[in-house]
C-alpha cells in the first residue's frame, strides 16, 4: 500500500455536505459521480495531497444507507492507493484478511476497488484503490 488515497464520509445530503466541506477545506468540489453498482452518489474534494469522498445513498438498501441508519453520518472508510490491486488482494488473503469482493470492481474517480471487511481491521472498512490506466 502506497498512501492514503482518500477518506470516505457517509452523508445524508450531498449538496449540503459539499457546501460544508468546500467551506471547511477552502477548496472546490472537483468531481461528482454516480456509482450505480454501489447505489451511491459521490463528490470529491482535494486539499493538498489529501482527498475526501462524500457518499450519499441512492437506494434505501445500499451499503451507505444501511451505514447511515446504523451509525449516522461520519467516516465510512479509508482508502489506500495500490500499484497492483490483484497482487495486494492476494497478499491480504494470504495474511488471513477477509475481502468483501473476490475481484476488483469499478469504483468512483477512475479507480478499480476492493474492500477489506471491517471486522478484520478493528472496525474500519478499508478500500484498496488502483488507478485505471488508459492506453
From TrEMBL:
Gene3D superfamilies cross-referenced by the UniProt entry: 2,3-Dihydroxybiphenyl 1,2-Dioxygenase, domain 1
Amino-acid biosynthesis as UniProt keyword: no
The keyword Metal-binding belongs to this UniProt entry's keyword annotation: yes
Record-linked CDD domains: MMCE
GO molecular-function terms, A-Z: metal ion binding; methylmalonyl-CoA epimerase activity
SUPFAM superfamilies per record: Glyoxalase/Bleomycin resistance protein/Dihydroxybiphenyl dioxygenase
InterPro entries given in the database record: Glyas_Bleomycin-R_OHBP_Dase (IPR029068), MeMalonyl-CoA_epimerase (IPR017515), MMCE/EMCE_epimerase (IPR051785), VOC_core (IPR037523)
Residue ranges occupied by any VOC domain in the UniProt entry: 3-131
Pfam families: Glyoxalase_4
Broad enzyme group: isomerase
EC id: 5.1.99.1
Biological process, per Gene Ontology: L-methylmalonyl-CoA metabolic process
Keyword tags: Isomerase, Metal-binding
Protein family according to the UniProt entry: Belongs to the methylmalonyl-CoA epimerase family.
NCBIfam families per the UniProt record, alphabetical: metmalonyl_epim
Name of the molecule in the record: Methylmalonyl-CoA epimerase
Species the sequence originates in: Pedobacter polaris
Amino acid at each position: 500500500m502506497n498512501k492514503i488515497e482518500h477518506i470516505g464520509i457517509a452523508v445524508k445530503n450531498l449538496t449540503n455536505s459539499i457546501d460544508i466541506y468546500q467551506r471547511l477545506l477552502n477548496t472546490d468540489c472537483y468531481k461528482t459521480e454516480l456509482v450505480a453498482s454501489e447505489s451511491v452518489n459521490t463528490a470529491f474534494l482535494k486539499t493538498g495531497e489529501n482527498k475526501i469522498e462524500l457518499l450519499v445513498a441512492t437506494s434505501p438498501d445500499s451499503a451507505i444507507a444501511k451505514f447511515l441508519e446504523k451509525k449516522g453520518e461520519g467516516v465510512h472508510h479509508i482508502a489506500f492507493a495500490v500499484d497492483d490491486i490483484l497482487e495486494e488482494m492476494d497478499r491480504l488473503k494470504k495474511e488471513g484478511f477477509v475481502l468483501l469482493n473476490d475481484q476488483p470492481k469499478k469504483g468512483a474517480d477512475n479507480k478499480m476497488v476492493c474492500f477489506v471487511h471491517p471486522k478484520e481491521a478493528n472496525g474500519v472498512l478499508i478500500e484498496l484503490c488502483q488507478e485505471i490506466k488508459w492506453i
